[in-house]
Design brief:
Keywords: Glycoprotein, Membrane, Transmembrane, Transmembrane helix. One of its GO terms (biological process) is antigen processing and presentation. This is DMA protein. It is built from 2 helices and 13 strands, in the order ββββαβββββββββα. The protein has 220 residues and is an alpha+beta fold. It has 2 domains: 73 residues, Class II Histocompatibility Antigen, M Beta Chain, Chain B, domain 1, CATH 3.10.320; 93 residues, Immunoglobulin-like. Strands 5, 6, 9, 10 and 11 form a 5-stranded antiparallel beta sheet that branches. A 4-stranded antiparallel beta sheet has the order 1-2-3-4, with helices on one face. A 4-stranded antiparallel beta sheet has the order 8-7-12-13, with no helix packed on it. The longest helix is centred in the last third of the chain and has 28 residues.
Length: 220
């Protein structure tokens, strides 16, 4: 038998330009994980995680990246003039999902993550609500990460102290759309002692019914 081939990985550098905000974006991703994004106003690479080593500036000088960005914008304007009214605009329908960073426990601090996928073009707004009321304090967003299907994914983080039955809502909107994508998350009351007590009561009741039926059968 042939030896198994090592898994294939993809290192992608994706530059985009568009009329919506952000008008420019440049990300370096390894598979589905973003490593760096380029800060165009500051003309520097910024690591996605603070522990990552700095990206060597000699590989791609900022001046070259700014030249590529200008070329992208000029090309976009030319293609827009040719394709407007002829080709339909391509748009993806975002998909949102909420999950906690740590196992959820009532009364303990945690962080909720809203993952928004299938984003194209990369221009969406993400907001949070708690029981129908907007939350803005402590909310952070990541830059857009390119995916293998030529779309983008974006994450939003909300630090919380969880309470049972609190309803958290992640709302994704896009300029020009008449609809929003909404995801909900609720901490359910899963007290292990209550679950065990319910299970023991159910088992005792079932055993009692079976013994009763067995007694009746023996009498007959």
């Amino acid at each position: 038998s042939l030896p198994a081939e090592p898994p294939a990985h993809t290192l992608a550098e994706v530059l985009f330009c568009q009329p919506a905000m952000p008008s420019l974006g440049l990300a370096l991703a390894f598979d589905a994980d973003q490593l760096f994004w380029f800060d165009f106003p500051g003309s520097r690479w910024t690591p996605r995680l603070p522990d990552l080593p700095p990206w060597p500036p000699t590989l791609e000088p900022p001046s070259q990246l700014l030249h590529d960005a200008t070329l992208c914008q000029d090309l976009r304007r030319s293609l827009t003039a040719l394709a407007a009214g002829v080709l339909p605009e391509s748009k993806g329908i975002p998909v949102a999902d909420i999950f906690p960073v740590q196992p959820p426990v009532s009364g303990e601090p945690n962080t909720l993550v809203c993952m928004v996928g299938n984003v194209f073009p990369p221009a969406v707004e993400i907001s949070w609500q708690l029981d129908g009321f907007p939350i803005t304090q402590g909310v952070t967003h990541t830059h857009y990460t390119p995916t293998a299907d030529l779309a983008f994914v974006r994450f939003s983080y909300l630090p919380v102290t969880l309470a049972v039955d609190d309803i958290y809502t992640c709302i994704v909107t896009r300029e020009g759309d008449n609809a929003s994508v909404i995801a909900y998350w609720v901490l359910q009351n899963h007290d292990p002692s209550e679950v065990l007590e319910t299970a023991l009561c159910g088992a005792a009741m079932t055993l009692g019914i079976l013994l009763g039926l067995l007694g009746i059968a023996m009498i007959l």
